[in-house]
Amino acid sequence: MNVFEKTERFILKHKMLSKGDRVIVGVSGGADSVCLLLLLWELKEKYSLSITAVHVNHCIRGAEADTDELFVKELCEKLSIEYKSFRFDVTAFSRKNGMTVEEAGRTLRYKAFEEVSQGGKIAVAHTLNDNCETMLMRFFRGTGVKGLCGIPPVRNNIIRPILCLTREETEGVCLKNGCGYRTDSTNLSDDYTRNKIRLRLIPFLESNFNVSIAETMARTSELMRSDEDFLSLAAQQAYKNCEISKGVLDVNKLNRLHPALQKRVIRLGFVEYSADLHDISEKNVSAVLSLLSGGSGKTAQLVHSLRAVREYDTIRLYKEEKAEFVCQNIFPESKTYLESENTYIILTSQTIENYIFKTAFDADRLKFPLTLRTKEPGDKIYLNGIKGHKSLKKLFADMKIPATKRVSLPLLASGNDVLWVYSLKTNDKYKANEETKNTVYLYITEE
Q: What is the C-alpha end-to-end distance of the chain, expressed in Å?
């Protein structure tokens, strides 16, 4: 089987192309990307492909990079392929955004590809060797099954048609077609980890252990992808079973899961908050799992503003909000919006139909204006049921109010006395009775 047949079979296996596809090809000028362009050019007529080559100049290597750009342009003219080029100051972008130069280059390259593709396919030139290097890098840094899946042949609209080829094969295609290729001088330096693996480690492994190490790692990554697909599906089903509401997980159900699924369920919980899973470390996941054996109120501070808290028989993942409750003065015949509850409270001397009645106070015993605020240290409320005062701290604990909710739960006070705690209790000392002459009513409405 020749290289062309091998590539087409790989494309068909992973359903990368359909007839009439618009394909953007990232072409740096190196052997891999030139080979990719040539092979897709060979398939152009058979699949009725619309091909556009995109070259990105990172403005790092000066005249050498400019020569690469010219080489790609001339190659596209020779093949009658549409060509577009971009220039980015990658170094400046990396400094501004706190990225490595490699990360910045990749971000800007894919930005250019997406801009040109407009939803079409984006073909990039990763090979068996790239996959081997990626797997080894992840292994040395520490990774799980997903990391050892290597580089995926297809991800969304990004396709990698020559992931089945070795670098030796891509160079052979270029030489056979007589078009040559460019060599990036930075790839010859072992200053970077990937280059050290490429230039020193892999040749050592090939010479001393396995001459076909890239092919072996490719087979391993395929097995890993199969396992990852199964585990990912199992984790999604387990998450649905454990989820009570957004970010709230059932501790008892979590405890019944295998540890491998527990970790995956926690990671899926982070996704609810649009967390980049690259930022979620094993340490973060372990911190959340430690709450399974902790008491209610125990918390874990995670990456960025993400937090986790044990709340009785649940674990809740949430984003810590910095917004503070605004204390307000409340007068009779007023309507006040409670942002934390997304409702309004109405204080009036009139009865109102169609609103939710909460309580009625003896107006003559109140000190106006009343204060709408949150709990303060030492707050108590008088309850007839216990014939005395009860601290709000104990009230919240007895009623199993989550710790994160306690700090934002609104209450109404007259002077230093708590009159009413939102959706919980009313101070019985201030309730209207048969002797009350002037009554003020408290209602809740969503409009």
A: 71
Distance CA 299, CA 289 (A): 11
Residues 6 or more apart whose Cβ sits within 8 Å of residue 259: 289
Domain boundaries along the sequence of the chain: 3-221, 246-319, 328-445
Are 374 and 408 in contact, with CB atoms under 8 Å apart? yes
pTM above 0.70, yes or no: yes
The answer as to CATH 3.40.50.620 being correct for domain 3-221 is yes
User: How far apart, in whole angstroms, are the C-alpha atoms of residue 108 and residue 121?
Assistant: 17
Q: How far are the Cα atoms of 103, 373, 390, 411 from residue 370, in angstroms, in the given order?
A: 56, 10, 21, 10
Q: Is residue 190 over pLDDT 80?
A: no
The hierarchical CATH code for the domain 246-319 is: 3.30.465.60
Q: Do 3-221 and 246-319 agree at the fold level? A: no
Report yes or no: 431 and 362 within 8 Å, Cβ to Cβ.
Answer: yes
What digits encode the pLDDT tens for the residues 36-56?
999 999 999 999 999 999 999
